[in-house]
Amino acid sequence: MKDRLQAIKEEALSQIQEAGMLDRLNEVRVNFLGKKGELTGLLKSMKNIPPEERPAFGQLVNETRAQIEEALEETKKKLEQKALEEKLKAEVIDVTLPAKKNNVGHRHPNTIAREEVERIFVGMGYEVVEGPEVEYDLYNFEKLNIPANHPAKDEQDTFYITKDIVLRTQTSPVQARVMEQGKLPIRMIAPGRVFRSDEVDATHSPSFHQIEGLVVDKNITFSDLKGTLEQFAKELSGENTKTKFRPHHFPFTEPSAEVDVSCFKCGGKGCRFCKGSGWIEILGCGMVHPHVLEMCGIDPEEYTGFAFGVGLERIALLKYEIDDMRLLYENDIRFLKQF
Ligand code: DAH
């Protein structure tokens, strides 16, 4: 039996030495130490030796087992080290390879246009403020002179959250919020997202952006409104830009107007871009309605004001001569990085 044990040990150690790979080493372990391995088999045949010799023989088997295990462990470490070295050798870094290009993001045309409008008005002393996109019906309609059942409500059919809360259809509610704070005078613009239940097409989207403007002070007149917006148009699309104020109706301003600018593409002669008219509509405006001032806690006898609302996408489309608004929302980087 002892000879047999010795033979097993020698065989195991020699196989361990020859195992060049970790897989093979594991096979050797199973063959000798596994449940059906040679050493285990030898233990099972202990019943064939006299009982008084069993303890000594058992100890011998255990010693052999320990020696084999030690050899396995040592070789495993060596093989792992060797594998690592080979891997590192194979992975030599070629520092002469060109570096991977780092793609830096790009500002969206809407953002560029918004920052441009902000720059112009901040330059005239305006403050940039924000209002909530989820708004009370009270601010979106009531305080802007659009009571329940007013036909103007239909034109801006909105998304209702509850009976009293809507996704704002315009940035105009920010006017009411700022006036209510009671700090006068006011010179502010309020850019932001608005929502209407519109079908998507080249010029409509259920979600778009506006920039609201509001000035309230003593002795503000329609000439201030005209002068301000003329200056804005010139800074936006060039010194030679002409403006045209067409009478219009908005419930919260009186009088109200829509403003067209001379087509920056053809200079007013008429082209595909301005649909032959020479003019492009860019905003709505007017003198803040006395009733609106009153509802927001401002005395209309003492203070007057003007307001305007610009469609941001409109400005972006004009600035970059884009003829389909949907392109702005598709987030195709090939399109966006052109601006
Ligand atoms: N809120 C209006 C709209 O969405 C635009 C507008 C018109 C805003 C006249 C104004 C204004 O502040 O005075 O159609």
Summary of the model, kept short:
The chain has 339 residues and is an alpha+beta fold. It contains 12 helices and 9 strands. Strand 6 and strand 7 form a beta hairpin.
Describe the structure.
By secondary structure, this protein is of the alpha+beta class. It has helices spanning 2-18, 22-33, 38-44, 54-90, 109-123, 137-140, 151-155, 173-180, 222-237, 290-295, 312-320, 333-336, and strands spanning 127-128, 134-136, 165-167, 186-195, 207-217, 243-250, 253-262, 279-288, 304-311. The protein has a 7-stranded mixed beta sheet, sandwiched between helices. Strands 2-3 form a two-stranded antiparallel ribbon. Strand 6 (243-250) and strand 7 (253-262) form a beta hairpin. Helix 1 (2-18) packs parallel to helix 4, helix 2 runs antiparallel to helix 4 and helix 5 (109-123) packs across helix 11. It binds 3,4-dihydroxyphenylalanine. The site of 3,4-dihydroxyphenylalanine has 11 residues, from strand 8 and strand 9.
The global form is: elongated
In which range does the helix fraction lie? 40-55%
Low-confidence stretches: none
| Helix-strand sequence | HHHHHEEHHEHEEHEEEHEHH
Approximate strand percentage: 15-25%
